[in-house]
Write a structure and sequence with these properties.
It is built from ten helices and seven strands. It is an alpha/beta fold and 243 residues long. The protein has a single domain, classed as Vaccinia Virus protein VP39 (Rossmann fold, 3-Layer(aba) Sandwich), CATH 3.40.50. A seven-stranded mixed beta sheet has the order 3-2-1-4-5-7-6, sandwiched between helices. Helix 6 links the parallel strand 4 and strand 5. It starts with 8 loop residues before the first helix and ends in a 6-residue tail after the last strand.
């Protein structure tokens, strides 16, 4: 597949970053979350409302861990599209999926979260894991998710957050500075992971995300803080009728 090269220089920088971290992405996720990321991703799958036989979407799918969980949720009668604009991460996703004992109905698509390559109203549910914080236009990405979901369908978006508690924020920053960045540095990826802290400072709070999702047209919008508020899942539903 021909690689998608974003015209925006900032988007090119983000794409290059994720291409560089692709070989170590899963290893670092396991080490730095002590395996807890699997639980958080499964929560996102459950809150997405995906059920057996449905056609679902995982945006900013990365190495495909959340995508595969979504595919297991919909079963053999369903299918999942995993979308990312990092060709290196998509290659990791393909390789790891090929190694699965149970065949999974997944189609990997190189695409942009701000311009999803799908028709309107096509998906029964959608997820996104650690992607919303990295898109250049959060309102546009939410509008695109709204566009491609069927009426009545839900989305669930998992990401890092700055917790409200001052002492937990202090712990989070300590962990990023003294655990996350040194671990990444040991793999030659110090600068690539140092970006997490400033990205959290720019990221909308849970309440702000609720407002953004409502502005995109979603209803029944809730933000669930998890991991003492250091993570969160935004859950929203497209109205059951077109407006």
């Amino acid at each position: 597949m021909t690689s998608i090269l974003p015209a925006n220089p900032q988007a090119q920088t983000i794409q290059s970053l994720f291409n560089r971290i692709a070989p170590a992405y899963d290893q670092l996720n396991d080490r730095l979350s002590m395996g807890q990321h699997r639980i958080w991703k499964q929560m996102a799958v459950r809150w997405s409302g995906a059920t057996t036989g449905q056609v679902c979407l995982d945006v900013c799918c990365g190495s495909g861990d959340l995508t595969r969980r979504l595919a297991r949720q919909v079963g053999r009668g369903g299918s999942v599209y995993g979308v990312d604009f990092s060709p290196a991460l998509l290659e990791v996703a393909r390789q790891q999926t090929a190694e699965q004992v149970q065949p999974l109905a997944i189609e990997w698509v190189e695409g942009d979260a701000l311009n999803l390559p799908f028709a309107d109203h096509g998906f029964d549910a959608a997820t996104m894991g650690y992607g919303l914080r990295n898109v250049l236009d959060i309102p546009r990405s939410l509008q695109e998710l709204y566009r491609v979901l069927k009426p009545g369908a839900k989305m669930a978006i998992l990401d890092f957050h700055r917790p409200n508690s001052a002492w937990i924020r202090t712990f989070q920053q300590w962990y990023l500075n003294l655990v996350v960045v040194p671990a990444a540095e040991s793999l030659g990826l110090k600068q690539e992971y140092a970006y997490i802290s400033p990205s959290l400072d720019r990221f909308p709070t849970g309440q702000e995300q609720i407002v953004l999702a409502q502005s995109a047209g979603f209803v029944n919008v809730t933000h669930y803080p998890i991991a003492a508020g250091m993570m969160g899942v935004l859950v929203a539903q497209k109205p059951g009728y077109l407006i």
